[in-house]
Amino acid sequence: MDDIPRDQLTGALRRGAVKKHVAAIHVSGKLTLLQRKLSNVLLLNAYDTLTSSARHQIDARTLCLMIGYNSNDMDTLKQSLRGLAETVAEWDMLDEKGQQEWGVSSLLSYAKLKGGVCEYAYSPALAEKLHDPKVFALINLNIQRRFTSGHALALYENCYRFVRTGSTGWWPLDLFRRLMGVEGSAYYETFKHLNAKIIKPAVAEVNRTSNIIVTPDTKKMGRAVTDIRFRIKENPQLAILDIDNGEGARHGPVYARLRALGVSDRLARQWLTAHGEEQVLAKLAYVEAKEGVRSRIGYLSAALDGEGAGGAPALPAPQSAASSPPPPSPSPRAERLRRILEAVKARTPTQRDADRRLFMSQLPDARLRDDFERHGWMSPLNATRVAQFWRDMAPGLFEGIDG
Length: 403
Description:
Elements: E1 17-20, H1 22-25, E2 27-28, H2 33-46, E3 56-59, H3 60-66, H4 74-85, E4 88-94, E5 100-106, E6 110-114, E7 117-121, H5 124-130, E8 137-140, H6 141-144, H7 150-160, E9 171-172, H8 173-180, H9 191-209, E10 212-221, E11 224-234, H10 253-261, H11 265-275, H12 277-289, H13 296-305, H14 332-346, H15 349-361, H16 366-375, H17 383-393
Antiparallel strand pairs: 1-8, 2-4, 3-7, 4-5, 6-7, 9-11, 10-11
Helix pairs in contact: 2-4, 7-9, 10-11, 11-12, 12-13, 12-14
């Protein structure tokens, strides 16, 4: 799945990860998946001025799209903000002098929507804890966007901060139920139900979705399970999702397609660094759609290193008028793809992310979703569905091609 395009975001939003203090992870109340994602994006937006500014602001539509909520229905956003203001964060830790400190605060002291802007604030005590660089977990927004279950995201948040030690240590089941937001439920008092409905599905999604692999262990007293811990190791297949270390260019789908075309490793990385994945993908699609091109690498190099009028790739200079006939007109399929990529390029980064999530939600099986994750809007298995999606999204986009 594509990362959030940080080059088009500003300020703290470009960081792409949230420094999340343990105090912010141990919360009472039942946060939904949407509320958990919302909490992380708000913290990321505010982080740079967390202790120096009493209030923070973010465009409401940008906020919705960053959490994957592609809708103008502000009522859902209001409900989620209300939930954060009603949810309590609790910490119990040693201060700098070694003294025990206990504290409690609502996650947001207030939030308001006015003129398309979301304004919000943290209590001073919680802001200090959230900004503390000594104890935090990095919550990567590009990882959190992949989660479809609030319980799985909660498990990830509570496990990832222990990745360096390899284990969460033993948690009493009462604490674990609280971390998962199911405390007070008689149904989940039975470990059989807790394991089947919460633990197993959450572990499966974390291992499938994130950059860590977790394995649960249990401790018993007699026949009753009393404690649980999670052993943690990095997931080598999905380590690319941890974008903060700057690695991973070689593992992206655009890089793989460049290499398949015959582009060298160094040149592929240079193009991706200089032009960005989306720009390279657009030019690559243009070149692949062309018929009768002898040297696709040379054509692509010319397209990236210099553009013709209107953003069309500049062609390599012809050797002679006789040997370089005009390029053939693109096929209807190639022209459709070109217009789709232009429409995608015209969208904002958060709109592009929301478009992808909306399209992905409409795919009926894992095979189609996997192909879309690998190839994006150029997914061969989803070509018909992609065209129909953009027909609905942008009426008239294919005028002159359809019909």
